[in-house]
Amino acid sequence: MSDTLPISGLEGKRLLLGVSGSIAAYKSAELVRLLRRAGCEVQVLTTPDTARFISPLTLGTLSQRRVLTEIFHDEAERTWTEHITLGHWADLYVIAPATAQTIAKLAHGFSDSMLTATALAAHCPVLICPAMDHDMYMHPAVRANLKRLQGLGYQVMQAVYGELASGLVGLGRLPDLPDIVSRITELVPGKLRGRRALVTAGPTREPIDPVRAVTNHSTGTMGFALAESLVRQGAQVTLVTGPTLLNTPSGVRRVDVSTAAEMYEAVMANRDADYVFMAAAVADYTPAEPSSAKLRKADAKLTLRLRRTSDILAELGRHRRDDQVLVGFAMETEDGLARARAKLADKHLDWIVLNYINEPGAGFGTGTNRVTLIGRDGSSHALDTMPKEEVAEALLDRILAGG
Ligand code: CTP
């Protein structure tokens, strides 16, 4: 089957292949062959146990590069910083098979082999392809580690159902090689490979007292969809989100915040991103003196004194890099184009996405949106009403194409 598998888009790509010690390691030889034939350079990294399952000679011969295992080795021409160099070199790092042990180490930042240390140094997407016995795969510790890896920004494929090395049948087989290769082709050719993106999403929640808050109706859907589209283009994505019930898109690093002040801090900590999409509905006002004790209705007249929050996007705009792409959102009820254009100019943005709150099929809490993308050069593109995932794709396409 592999001989007839059409693979395109991988020519000249630099792949790291991490092979950990599992019976499924024999399949990695075939994976190396497929990737080499597709035109990739492949550097194999292993853990010390891998050689019990497949010989470095096999993997080294097929990849035409010496297999690397130990961080400290005795060859004079190699240095102990090779894991760092490789982490910068690669377009994608695939770990297949990833054992329970390797998954646990990656989830907790271990760096005891070339395989694990290079994952910490990688500037590219890292794809984890688990393989182990059913009971191990289903164990809550392994489930938690895989979830943790996704939260740290790793791409995780699911193991598949079938016959296992133990003779049992269940979930735990290495994903099929054609599926691994197609995931690789999805991740590698992105226009945003090696670029960092910051997306904000959702509402903020400004406390009045321990049980009450000032908030808004944002669900976070638009920001989450953008984060997903950016990952698909190969970007390393940090998603700073206010309270929402949405699941984290695979491969996105998520930072949960509650108040506008927390969002400000989280955004500033990630302000060096190449692309910033400020899709959050940040509160413009917050209670000036939130009460640490619950306010009683017996206290009769409640007057809330509010103060302005910091404008996060305006602050980013004031100190922006010229090569950074800053995208803001404007939600308007009337005179939208003019108001959005004014915000774009005031906040030094490259783009602003205008949506109309009082239109059917647009705004908060709907699965669809109708937006107009306005550029710094004065251009404007009105997109049709469509699902927010498609809006995200269309916006990103236009922005990456320059308008
Ligand atoms: N924004 C922000 N920080 C705030 C408020 C808003 O970063 N404290 C961002 C939003 O994420 C959005 C854009 O600014 O990208 C919205 O612009 P803004 O002028 O704040 O819009 P409104 O709050 O709707 O302002 P106005 O009430 O003046 O229309």
Could you describe the 3D structure shown?
The chain has 403 residues and is α/β, with parallel strands linked by helices. It is built from 13 helices and 21 strands. The strands form six sheets. The chain has an eight-stranded mixed β-sheet with strand order 12-11-8-13-16-17-19-20, sandwiched between helices. Strands 2-1-3-4-5 form a five-stranded parallel β-sheet, sandwiched between helices. The chain has a two-stranded antiparallel sheet with strand order 6-7. Strand 9 and strand 10 form a beta hairpin. Helix 3 crosses helix 5 and helix 4 packs across helix 7. The longest helix has 14 residues. It is elongated and about 75 Å long. It starts with 13 loop residues before the first strand and ends with a helix. The N terminus is likely disordered. Bound molecules: cytidine-5'-triphosphate (CTP). Cytidine-5'-triphosphate (CTP) binds next to helix 11 and strand 16.
Features of this protein?
8-stranded mixed beta sheet; disordered N terminus; single chain; 5-stranded parallel beta sheet; 13 helices; binds cytidine-5'-triphosphate; 403 residues; 31% helix; 21 strands; alpha/beta
